[in-house]
């Protein structure tokens, strides 16, 4: 066994970072045996050095992260501080001073992954980020390595535990959005400001990373269409149940049928109860992958939390350290196809549209004419008068597959009908 330990610098010591440090200490012997050399925590960069950190030698703690990554004797930098800066500068500095990097930073990788990969390759370093997408779930490595000889056509996933908890609570108890969010916050599943989760920003960053790896092309955060789930209502769940469906916030990455382009999107969607993703409960994550040779694969597990995320970080750390010992680097950026990312308007799927209409003869015919004029074929229609007898009715239309652009044109025209009081909701139907 190599005598000199591999030195690790830890940037950030919050929920995830503290777990990384704890596992490195408590499992030191096992990690050394798996790697072929001991690993040593050489420094921990934090913002508040006065805070007591159990199990970490105070002499290792510093507020000067830049000096830590510039030391020159650091083998691996583990970055778990998040955000764009100073994380980006610290990672590039680490590469330039001889260190490989393990990161859990989805936002940075979604925005600047291509540039970071290019610098890592130029400097002969590794950049691993299993923990950036789905916590403890092994997903990046299977897509990047295990399926490297296959053609992935679609990735469909629940990649945010907070939103899945909220939607699952609304589905199982009939709670409203705010009530479910309040419970998620009380249980620690939702941040004090849940915007990144409920508006889909978190899932969109993960979708960009997944699409880039799955389709070997450049997909940035700006390429991902995004809708949040704050407007999902109990009435939407009632309609979903009537169709034998439930509602999930999905990250969907697809290769076009002709193979010439890809799409990436995040939005709420109805999925059949028979689909494996429909049974994913609570704060769990799951990703469904469809490929030519392997067929359908599903990856499931805890997608967040200190220990689960640290598990993914340590898995990457072992791989990077093994590469260091062998003098090699692992798989780098595989974006060799340069496929264009199509706009949302070209996405084709089914739709569930709920309209508030005047309860009188001829309304259904007018609505059907608008759909026909925009080339959107109707599958089913359900109309129900209001229980309050106010003269309005609820009209639910489920379409066959149509482009998002055609559907948008249809909805705009429906809003201009005198007999349509309002468009109550629009929900895509996926996973059929």
How are the secondary structure elements laid out?
Blueprint: E1 6-11, H1 15-26, H2 28-35, E2 39-45, E3 61-62, H3 65-69, E4 76-79, H4 87-96, E5 100-103, H5 106-123, E6 127-128, H6 131-134, H7 140-146, E7 152-158, H8 161-173, H9 177-186, H10 195-198, H11 201-215, E8 225-226, H12 234-242, E9 245-255, E10 262-272, E11 284-291, E12 295-302, H13 306-326, E13 348-358, H14 363-373, E14 378-385, E15 392-399, E16 402-403, H15 404-415, E17 420-429
Parallel strand pairs: 1-2, 1-4, 2-3, 4-5, 5-6, 8-10, 10-17
Antiparallel strand pairs: 7-9, 7-11, 9-10, 11-12, 13-15, 13-16, 13-17, 14-15
Helix pairs in contact: 1-13, 4-5, 5-11, 8-9, 14-15
Structure notes:
The protein has 432 residues and is an alpha/beta fold. It contains 15 helices and 17 strands. Strands 7, 8, 9, 10, 11, 12, 13, 14, 15, 16 and 17 form an 11-stranded mixed sheet that branches. A 6-stranded parallel sheet has the order 3-2-1-4-5-6, sandwiched between helices. Helix 1 packs across helix 13 (306-326), helix 5 packs parallel to helix 11 and helix 8 packs across helix 9 (177-186). It is elongated. The model has no long low-confidence stretch (mean pLDDT 94).
């Amino acid at each position: 066994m190599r005598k000199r330990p591999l030195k690790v610098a830890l940037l950030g010591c919050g929920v995830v970072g503290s777990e990384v440090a704890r596992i490195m200490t408590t499992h030191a012997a096992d990690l050394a045996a798996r790697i072929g050399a001991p690993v040593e925590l050489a420094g921990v960069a934090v913002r508040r050095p006065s805070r007591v950190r159990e199990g970490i030698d105070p002499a290792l703690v510093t507020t000067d992260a830049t000096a830590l990554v510039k030391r020159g004797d650091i083998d691996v930098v583990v970055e778990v501080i998040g955000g764009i800066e100073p994380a980006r500068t610290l990672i590039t500095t680490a590469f330039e001073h001889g260190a490989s990097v393990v990161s859990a930073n989805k936002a940075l990788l979604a925005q600047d992954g291509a540039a970071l990969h290019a610098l890592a390759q130029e400097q002969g370093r590794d950049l691993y980020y299993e923990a950036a997408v789905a916590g403890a779930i092994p997903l990046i490595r299977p897509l990047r390595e295990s399926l490297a000889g296959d053609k992935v056509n679609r990735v469909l996933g629940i990649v945010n535990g907070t939103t899945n908890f909220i939607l699952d609570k609304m589905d199982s108890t009939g709670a409203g959005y705010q009530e479910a969010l309040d419970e998620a916050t009380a249980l620690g599943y939702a941040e004090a400001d849940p915007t990144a989760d409920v508006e889909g920003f978190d899932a969109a960053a993960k979708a960009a990373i997944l699409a880039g790896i799955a389709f070997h092309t450049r997909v940035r955060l700006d390429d991902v269409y995004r809708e949040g789930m704050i407007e999902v209502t109990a009435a939407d769940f009632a309609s979903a149940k009537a169709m034998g469906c439930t509602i999930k916030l999905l990250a969907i990455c697809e290769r076009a049928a002709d193979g010439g382009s890809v799409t990436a999107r995040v939005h709420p969607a109805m999925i059949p109860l028979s689909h494996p993703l429909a049974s994913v409960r609570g704060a769990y994550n799951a990703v469904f992958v469809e490929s030519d040779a392997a067929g359908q694969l599903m990856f499931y597990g805890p997608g967040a939390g200190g220990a689960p995320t640290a598990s993914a970080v340590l898995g990457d750390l072992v791989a990077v350290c093994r590469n260091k010992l062998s003098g090699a680097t692992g798989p780098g950026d595989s974006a060799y196809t340069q496929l264009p990312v199509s706009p949302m308007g070209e996405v084709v799927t089914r739709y569930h549209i709920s309209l508030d209409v005047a309860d009188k003869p001829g309304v259904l015919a007018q609505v059907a004419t608008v759909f026909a004029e925009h080339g959107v074929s109707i599958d089913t229609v359900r109309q129900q008068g209001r229980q309050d007898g106010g003269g309005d009715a609820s009209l639910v239309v489920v379409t066959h597959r149509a482009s998002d652009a055609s559907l948008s044109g249809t909805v705009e025209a429906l809003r201009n009908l005198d007999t349509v009081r309002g468009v109550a909701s629009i929900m895509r139907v996926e996973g059929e």
